Amino acid sequence: MMTNPNATTPQEKVDLLEDVSRPGVKAGVDLLRFTTAGSVDDGKSTLIGRLLYDSKAIFEDQLEAVERASETRGDEHVDLALLMDGLRAEREQKITIDVAYRYFATPKRKFIIADTPGHIQYTRNMVTGASTAELAIILIDARKGVVTQSRRHGFLATLLQIPHLMVAINKMDLVDYKQDVYNQIMADYKDFASKLSVQDIVFIPISALHGDNVVEKSYKMPWYDGPTLLHHLEHVNVGASRNLVDFRFPVQYVIRPNQDFRGFAGQVASGRVAVGEEVVVLPSGLQSKVKSIVTYESEPDEAIIGDSVVLTLEDEIDISRGDMIVRTRNLPQKSGQLDATLCWMSETPMNRQGAYWLQHTTRLVKTLISELNYKIDVDTMHREPTDSLALNEIGRVQLTTTQPIFYDRYQINRNTGSFILIDPYTNNTVAAGMIRGQSRQISDLIDIQAKVESDTMRKKSTDVVWESIGISREMRESKNGHKAAVLWFTGLSGSGKSTVAKKVEQFLFDRGGRTMFLDGDNVRHGLNGDLGFSEHDRQENIRRVAEVARLGFEHGNIVLCSFISPFQADRDFARSLLPQGRFFEVFVKCDIEVCKRRDPKGLYARALKGEIKNFTGISSPYEEPANPEIVFETDLHSTEEIVAQIMSILQAREII
């Protein structure tokens, strides 16, 4: 393993390695991770070799090996690129294939370099190398100017939220160090960068082969008065992209060597935590306090981003891999519906009907691509319609996961805002993604509430007049001995909606109540038999049912509606048709894994295979009720207990 030759003692070398490998402990502002990118043969590996050579960060035996290899190949100069191109195929073809990482240091800063491929077929590797970088060096061949790969890598750098961009215009020696060449390339790239969200960009003319403006100022370009490449690397502000506020601790492993110790191992993805702080465990929602922070060497009072530690809590809580520990008053977002930007990294194109594994921090869940919005042409930055994504293509997608994940938007937290997709059959990573936020919901697209503020805005046929009922609802309620109401049971398929609703109706019927039962499957056998399961058809399905429920209500009945009704706006529409206090939104809460295990109709199994499209909870979203009147969990309580709870609420509201 390479160490810094400037570290003169064995202990100093050990300290350096620890500093580099543990960025959260000592790295802070004195460690810069940067990546290089550019088109093929723009000189990326040569530049890094020059940096290592001129900063005296290579061993003598390494240099001798490079000199021998250069002589064997008949090179005119010592090929410093060989310090980076470690693969035999790279040395033979003189191109970089894999991502090569190197470590070096100067008296002012430590560095981790990711030398990434330039050829278009290895763009996916550039995404990998740049994913943790805080600065990107994009090399441009002064002879060729701004080419497609130059724009592609600039776009990827901004897409990955790399805060600092350096455009190194290389091979100035081959254009006689002309200023007008530099000015033209700078103008062209600035014009392209104006379309991007670039926070900081600098331009430096260099010759990596001869060392001009790499470590030392070049006397051959007196017209350039800016910093050298190394000077800029040493002084650029780092840490800006690291989220030091939001504490996120994905649990990797539970450690229990004996009955007296139970700890949770992982790496602090962002923020910091101290002993005694109140935390909450997701997804359970259970709260506790940090009892201790344990490392191999000690028990510090605090852990910060990048630290690999073991946390112990004051309370005995069931926690497993994939859970996340966060501060009680600083929670991430939670959703099973994600709006994301996807970089496709597989030679096998995206399967729109297939299921993938989504790896987010330590949490692994199944996901489907519910919508592919567009792909991006990195040359023009235009959005183009597409049915799939192929190797190296970038697009915007909507994802539906079988279990919710806990995330922050990539823009504010790169660690908890990123994920990868894995092919479940080959176990290959097929895509890398950046979370933009929660998936667009139907309530964002259609403001139903605005349409139902008054009955006059509801749809009705022309040339019709509302016929008043001869026997009023009040008269029917008086004879029935109870008030009319609508109980709207909503929840995932298999949650137990119909089972509970039928039990409630049986209870009311046995006691002389007037009831009406509407079930999701039954209405589709006739009334709504012409509807499918698109968002529009689901909206129309609930609209019709809500109108029928209102008619049943006006006849003095307690109407029990059992419908998944996944969208809050549709349920709000049904509520708007009734007087205040007569509509009860009943949230039948049940973990989706329990629903899948029950799967009474075999629908989940088919949906996960892609045989059923737009299936709620799998390939279509479910919006949990915001403020339901009644909530119960069928996987925690018996049907009898739930029925008793509902009856108690109806009595308290003076319905029965």
Detailed description of the structure:
The chain is an alpha/beta fold. It has four domains: 10-235, Rossmann fold, CATH 3.40.50.300; 248-327, Elongation Factor Tu (Ef-tu), domain 3; 333-440, Elongation Factor Tu (Ef-tu), domain 3; 472-652, P-loop containing nucleotide triphosphate hydrolases (Rossmann fold). The chain is 27% helix and 27% strand. It has a seven-stranded antiparallel β-sheet with strand order 7-15-11-12-14-9-8, with no helix packed on it. It is elongated, with a radius of gyration of 31 Å. The relative contact order is 0.07. Residues 1-29, 85-98 and 441-457 have low confidence and may be disordered.
Strand order of the largest sheet: 7-15-11-12-14-9-8
- Cα end-to-end separation: 78 Å
Fourth-tier CATH superfamily name of the largest domain = P-loop containing nucleotide triphosphate hydrolases
- Helical content, roughly? 25-40%
Compute the average pLDDT. Answer: 80
Number of helices: 19
Shape: elongated
Q: Count of DSSP E strands?
A: 27
- Describe the largest sheet: 7 strands, antiparallel
Name of the top-level CATH class of the largest domain: Alpha Beta
Structural domain count: 4
Give unreliable regions as ranges: 1-29, 85-98, 441-457
Structural class by SSE content: alpha/beta
Assembly classification: single chain
Q: Might you state the CATH topology name of the largest domain?
A: Rossmann fold
Give the DSSP E fraction (strand runs of 2 or more residues).
25-35%
Q: Which architecture of the largest domain would the CATH scheme give at its second level?
A: 3-Layer(aba) Sandwich
**Mind telling me the C-alpha Rg?**
31 Å
